[in-house]
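Subject: for your reference before the review

Hello V.,

The reviewers asked for a structural picture of the protein, and I figured it would be easier to keep everything in one thread rather than splitting it across files. Below is the amino acid sequence we used in the manuscript, unchanged from the supplementary table.
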Amino acid sequence: MENHLIMRAKKGDDEAFQQLIELHVKTVEKFAFQLGVPESSVEDITQEVFIKVYRFLDKHTRGKFTTWLYSITINVVRDLYRRETRQRRKLKAFQQAQESSIYIEQFYDESTKALHEQIQTLEEKYKVPIILHYFHDLPYQEIADILGVSEGAIKTRMMRAKKQLKEKLEKVGEVQ
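And here is what came back from the structure prediction:
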């Protein structure tokens, strides 16, 4: 069904493109938030992702559509952070601290709030594979395709990320 929608959208069928958006909008929103985008910017990021999908849909010729969608989302999020000034980042961090608890409750219960906060402290190269594997159920090979690295690199990053998370959670008393 998804491939049929993609083919129709490539031919200019706006209704098919709208259905593609509806099929994937929650995944993009959730992933953007998990990458550290403040709740107040998630909608803007999601909109930007689908604008890029619309503009470059013809460039998607092989592979899973969702793999391509995750890659676009990562790039849009990176662009957001490149554009922000240091002062704006500090302000947004303050705002995020106030707003994120409301948004977190939509996806997580209280017991995983500490985990989410610790995942946010990881370097991006560790954070993204953890999120994609454990929260989006993607296999290592697909994560490797999204990030443009080898499956071995993903395995190493996952091992290091899990070790770092365990240490961080032990420090705050969440893991025995």
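For the response letter, the relevant points are probably these. The radius of gyration is 17 Å. The CA atoms of residues 36 and 120 lie 6 Å apart.

Happy to draft the paragraph if you're swamped.

O.
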